[in-house]
Amino acid sequence: MEQDCILSQELITQTTQLEEGIMQLNPDGEQRTPVTKIESSLCYLLTIRVIRARNIHQADVLSQTDCYVRLWLPTASTDKFQTKTIKNCKDPVWNETFYFRIQSQVKNVLELALYDKDVVTQDDHLFTVYFDIAKLSLGEQVFMHFKCDSQRQEELEVGFALDNISGPPETIITNGVLVSRKICCLEVQVVEKKKKKKKKSLSSEGMKEFSFKVQGSYEGTQDIMLGSDLVFSSSSPAKFHYARYKQPTLDVMLPGKKRPPSFRSRVYDTGPPNVQLHSLPSGKNMILAEDKGFDLYMKAEDCPDHLDVRLGFDLCVQEQDFLCKRQKYVAPALKKVLQLEQDLLDHETPVVAIMTTGGGMRSLTALYGSLRGLKKLNVLDCATYLTGLSGTTWTMSNLYRDADWSQKDLDKQISEAQKHMTKCKINSLSLEYLKYYKKQLCQRKREGRKTSFIDLWGLVLESLLHDGKDNHRLSDQQCAIDRGQNPLPIYTAVNVKNNYSTLDFKEWVEFTPYEVGLQKYGAFVRVEDFGSEFFMGRLMKKVPESRICFLEGMWSSLFSLNVLYIWNLSHSSEDFWHRWTQDKIDNIEEEPLLPLKPHELRTRLFTPPGPLGSALRGTLTDRLCVAQEHNFLKGFQMHNNYLENKHFCRWKDTVLDTFPNQLTQSEEFLSLVDTGFFINTSIMPLLKPERKVDVILHLNYSAGSQIQALDQTCKYCSEQGILFPRVDLSEEDRKNLKECYLFDGAETPGAPVLLFFPLINDTFQKYKAPGQMRSESEMEDGKVDLYGCCSPYSTYSIQYTEKAYDRLVQLGEYNILNNEDLILQALHTAVARKRQKRK
User: Fold this and answer.
1) Which of 224, 350, 377, 421 could form a disulfide with 210 if both were Cys (CB 3.0 to 4.6 A apart)?
2) 317-335+346-560+630-838 has which fold?
3) What's the pTM value of the predicted model, to 2 decimals?
């Protein structure tokens, strides 16, 4: 039996690059080459012949297996295809052929899954073979023997052939990691031929229902209700956006016809023939069907190549413009702070960043104190970036409501925060507020969002930290940086995946007032469009931008924990349970052994876990809830050479990075959680080479160990090959931390200078200000119990007394002021290195 899954009349005779882009300059004057290109690229015809299997183990107790093979190549087709079932046979023979049209610059990984068919229960999944089509050479035919179990001598025999295919080339857009392919828009219009007199009421008997479906399109299925007195106007046809490479079919169900059990790829007995969309001429109106009462028209057009998702690893134009403006504030401030005689030139001005960690209301409060200390030292004007997660995002979003906050003293901001930190919180659970929460959640659902308990948490935060409804949005913060007057704020989260621990799968996500993006893929969207629906890089459905309280709920989602995370907190390691939550993946032998290519993946075998293993894995990895937003990577495909891309490799750290079919672009939603569920740090956006950060002020507000997050960051950067200074602390220092440590990164050329400020109460106990001893009556003010069992500063505490709030703000400020010398030393070092590098 032959199944012509995906055939095309297109002939690709050459691969030509259509657009190289324009050579641009970095802010320091260095040339940079755009990595995003529009190209026309070869497509091939892939022929797969599923021949036979040998020595398949017995899955049923009373009989041999009833085997069939399911084929899935998602980069070529939406559908999964399968062979016929061979009953009661351990050596089944199929000899069935399948065809796919594949794009040469896409990473095409074929999944061959062997199943045992069961009549009563769900079919048993025996194993899946992952085969990279990049192993094949054009014009050659090979017969592969996949050794699935060497002990039982199980094997699967499959034949492959890769050939040229007729037709014009396909235009793709790529940044070397993601590939966007051509999409088309199909319009279907229903027009009544004869209008009847208008009735007073329109009954269901007078309605005509048309149903259209394009499998794999963005819209999926659309139903049109046509009244007997109405004409479906040409101004509102049914639209379908689909990827041309999928070559889908338009399925039509006419009024009065019963919907078939499987509404896909078939012709109805009394309806019009369904249409293969790849055969439609572009831009031409065509009659789909004619009837006595109505006509059906359709038209397919190519969508423009412009993408609404920015593909690229460089900084966006707005951030580059900000850097130029911010430098006019930073250079004079550094000259003043360092008491330099001459002005700093552009290439001599270091990029300074303030990096914070989470810690609930403790981090919110302490950050105010740290920033006031930096303001008094005039160092705040030297900073280009300010990053945060969890509780510090609450402080940041409050500050950036004021367009000139860093140009003023912070006393007013601190007093306003104190008012909300010390107020009674029981009102947030009043009946009035509960009604308000319900109304807001219903509104988000109507807008097309997927709501969860984290959205409710965001609304509770709004009531805890503000008076009434807060209409502030992240894009509003552009006003606070449009002149370069404040540091650029960057908020962080991590994207996780269901059924995987954070140790196995997490991807960094950054939020600025300009963009939201995943730096691993080089994909960014305007912050106003975050949460909207995208397909293949095009904006399909605009959803109103979220109020910032909902983002704050996501950035600080305490409720995204799972059993593994709790175990990690109590035992400092997930290793004990980790083996129960991992896929059983093995590299397998294959005959013949094909020549090794640089970008190809090894052939691997996945063995599904049993019922007990699946249940245990779910128990360990399931999170209480996560914030889900529409995935703006949806529809993209991975480039054939994505694993060789230096940008992707820098952040490649998940077990699925070599499984392109299962990466984020295949998901309907992003699943976003607090960054603290991996490492309690917001430093990763600052380690992007494109930002060229020279000095990082690491303000730590973690509970428990003050050094743990820094140690985890060092380990992570070492494993990823990211330049980061070596943190060398003695055992004595680890037991009795000082207020500040300077790690200059001299042993790691290119690494930033790191100033580490743990949140501790050391000399503050005896000094109310640097060099000013406390009197006997003031000694009580120096007793700040940060982490004791009776401490008022627990991460889960939501209300402070005025005294507790004031003391924590003063402690944060004092620890900065008391280490002015180390701060100046770090800045001097950075300036000297910039000058030396230029020479």
Assistant:
1) 224
2) Cytosolic phospholipase A2 catalytic domain (3.40.1090)
3) 0.91
